[in-house]
Design goal:
Mean pLDDT is about 90; it is low at about 5-10 and about 360-370. The chain is an alpha/beta fold and about 375 residues long. About 40% of the residues lie in helices and about 20% in strands. The N and C termini lie far apart (about 45 Å).
Length: about 375
């Protein structure tokens, strides 16, 4: 078979294969120079895998946790860290990685470059950000058949994906209330996920274009969940654009503020125990918002959009578009229904993340996502 052309990016291919291994729950090797670690995500760690790893690790394994989880364990940290695992005690690992109310039980060390790459791979794969790793020697792993990926390729993966963003397909898709609508599908930008621009009407691309960056919400957008305002925002945006000169709605596959659907549902479970949306994410090891919007700006630029009016309550989205080189002429808020189930969620977004929500919600109860 002939060699792949340079444009195909072997490093990017390596990481794409590694993501498949992570999501399938299989261990893999991460390499930098002569150093190697074997990495297994905690959510995939079984007694059988622990027994297999123990002789390879030779009591040198460690648990990698992000800063938000370490803070939940009682440490004042702004950076991730590693906790030594003299033996692979699954109950201890689960307690440190997931249990509500757990406290750290050993010193926490700084991550190595390979450790940081392992945590980044878990983030991109949308699994729980907790990884067991161990330094291993080349001869010890030569016959294991594990996939091997360069740390540098993981470090460069997201930027390479943003740079590779391109339009794959487009077609008219009439919507209720917005019959003159086109869907434009992109590949690249974020992980292995396709992204969509919904072009409503015929906006003048040489003028200021009304846009919304809407992160996918399966529960709200499709099923009408009462725990959030996402579905209302989505439908109100399309209707507004259809009635006011058109616009571009970016439907971004960044479920659960970039944490992925499985982790969003884990966070929902924690919310039933009294945590707000941000505290629930921190228990799982996530910062307040894992999303990136640089590729969203790239999607708009590929359509020819340069100046925007942003429909959002989130000042972070406005700043992200400006940082990416778009001119933000104005912004306007977009509100959904207030329900008994979402008022605490709306209050958390307003009070903890600075969202521009001015409804009177302080005295009511509920929970939820954007």
């Amino acid at each position: 078979m002939s060699n792949l052309p340079p444009a195909s990016g072997m490093g990017q291919i390596q990481v794409e294969r590694a993501l498949a291994e992570v999501r399938a729950g299989r261990p893999l090797l991460i390499r930098a120079g002569r150093s190697r670690i074997v990495a297994i995500c905690v959510e995939a760690l079984t007694p059988e895998l622990a027994d297999w790893l123990q002789p390879l690790a030779r009591h040198r394994s460690r648990l990698l946790l992000p800063a938000p989880r370490l803070r939940r364990l009682g440490l004042e940290r702004q950076s991730p860290g590693a906790i030594a695992l003299p033996r692979l005690d699954l109950a201890r690992i689960e307690t440190l990685a997931l249990q509500v109310g757990a406290r750290f039980d050993a010193p926490v060390a700084a991550l190595t470059r390979l450790d940081a790459a392992a945590l980044e791979l878990a983030r991109i794969a949308l699994v729980l950000p907790a990884v067991v790793v161990a330094n291993v020697a080349g001869p010890a792993v030569a016959q294991t058949g594990m996939l091997e990926v360069e740390a540098a390729s993981i470090e460069q993966f997201r930027a390479a994906n943003v740079a590779s963003l391109k339009i794959i397909s487009r077609a008219p898709v009439p919507l209720e209330g917005a019959p003159d609508t086109e869907f434009v599908v992109y590949r690249g930008g974020e992980g292995l996920r396709d992204q969509v621009a919904v072009v409503v009407g015929k906006p003048d691309l040489n003028d200021t274009v009304t846009v919304r960056l809407h992160s996918a919400c399966l529960t709200g957008d499709l099923f009408g969940s009462l725990k959030c305002d996402c579905g209302d925002q989505l439908r109100h945006t399309a209707k507004f654009m259809a009635e006011n000169g058109g616009g571009v709605l970016l439907y971004l596959d960044q479920e659960g503020r970039g944490n992925g659907l499985s982790n969003k549902i884990r966070a929902y479970k924690l919310q039933t125990q009294g945590f707000d949306t941000y505290d629930a994410d921190e228990v799982l090891g996530f910062d307040h918002d894992q999303r990136g919007f640089d590729f969203a700006a790239g999607m708009l630029k590929l359509l020819g959009v340069r100046r925007v009016r942003v429909m959002t309550n989130n000042p972070y989205k406005i700043a992200a578009l400006e940082t990416a080189g778009l001119e933000v002429d104005a912004h306007q808020r977009i509100l959904g229904r207030k329900t008994d189930q979402n008022v605490m969620y709306l209050a958390a977004k307003r009070d903890r993340a600075g969202h521009m929500i001015d409804m009177d919600i302080a005295s009511q109860k509920g929970s939820a996502k954007e």
